[in-house]
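tokens incoming
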């Protein structure tokens, strides 16, 4: 449909009072933010239906897709979130949240989507530990290290918790793979006074997001692939600082230009460096994290989308 027709939501042949009638049904005791969000959603949904002359059969297909996503979801799989991811919604909301949270010229570490594979209560580990278990030597052991600092003062942050997770060389997170030990390739590390951290992990690989459900149906319908570039996930928390949910991406990985869930940002591209002299690692990955205090944040909004951030 031509752009002009799509944007002209008033010029239609349907009941001109219908949307106003639905909006007017709202009661007086509604929370203002709930009213803003639901009224805007209703307006956009109605405009969408009218502009595209959505039929009952097409609408029912959409309902069935959402119902199927609900049926597939459990503690180990979040198909609703996956649907949002392939539509770019989680990455867009992540960008909006980050921009609201900072207006500084020198910015904290950029955020990226949480994704559906985060698990609470990853094992707490000593600095220098290895998060890899039960995986045969595959030539991709990596020593990751760096410092967590306050982005404004540059001071090291003590007590920062770095929660890390990534896939195995077969492209599966441990909860997707009965052959991996529970909590494999996950760990939580707490910085001391110097703000430094280090641990052993693997150089990750690109992998397909699960495409055996509604998200996969959308990808197929749009003639798209399901792959994500090689990446490592992080959730950083620290006393007095805003949590950071982010991912770093192997610059040389396939799909960095073409992430199925649109999460790659230039500042999150990293280089795995060949590492000599350590029998436990073939690669070195230096990476520093910069965090903002709550007072640095405009309106006290938080970067990232975790239950932790919502409750702080
Ligand atoms: C992930 O990187 O874990 C992920 C993100 C979005 C959808 C599926 C997986
Ligand atoms: Fe991932």
């Amino acid at each position: 449909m031509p752009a002009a027709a799509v944007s002209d939501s008033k010029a239609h042949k349907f009941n001109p009072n219908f949307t106003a009638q639905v909006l007017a049904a709202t009661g007086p005791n509604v929370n203002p933010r709930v009213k803003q969000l639901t009224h805007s959603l209703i307006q956009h949904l109605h405009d969408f239906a009218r502009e595209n002359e959505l039929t009952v059969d097409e609408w029912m297909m959409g309902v069935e897709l959402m119902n199927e996503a609900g049926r597939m979801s459990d503690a180990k799989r979040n198909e609703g979130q996956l649907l949002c991811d392939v539509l770019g919604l989680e990455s867009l909301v992540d960008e909006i949240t980050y921009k609201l949270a900072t207006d500084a010229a020198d910015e904290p570490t950029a955020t990226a989507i949480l994704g559906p594979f985060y698990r609470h209560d990853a094992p707490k580990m000593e600095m220098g530990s290895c998060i890899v278990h039960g995986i045969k030597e595959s030539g991709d052991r990596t020593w990751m290290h760096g410092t967590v600092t306050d982005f404004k003062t540059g001071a090291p942050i003590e007590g920062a918790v770095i929660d890390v997770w990534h896939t195995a060389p077969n492209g599966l997170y441990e909860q997707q793979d009965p052959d991996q030990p529970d909590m494999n390739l996950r760990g939580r590390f707490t910085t001391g006074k110097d703000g430094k951290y280090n641990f052993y992990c693997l150089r990750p690989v690109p992998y397909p997001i699960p495409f055996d459900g509604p998200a996969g149906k959308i990808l197929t319908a749009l003639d798209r692939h399901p792959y994500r570039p090689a990446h490592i996930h992080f959730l950083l928390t620290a006393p007095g600082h805003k949590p950071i949910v982010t991912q770093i991406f192997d610059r040389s990985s396939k799909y960095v230009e073409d992430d199925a869930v649109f999460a790659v940002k230039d500042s999150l591209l990293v280089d795995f460096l060949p590492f000599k002299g350590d029998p436990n690692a073939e690669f070195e990955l230096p990476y520093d994290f910069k965090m903002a205090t709550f007072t640095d944040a405009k309106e006290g909004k938080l970067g990232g989308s975790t239950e932790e951030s919502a409750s702080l």
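note: Confidence is low (pLDDT under 50) at residues 1-8, 299-312.
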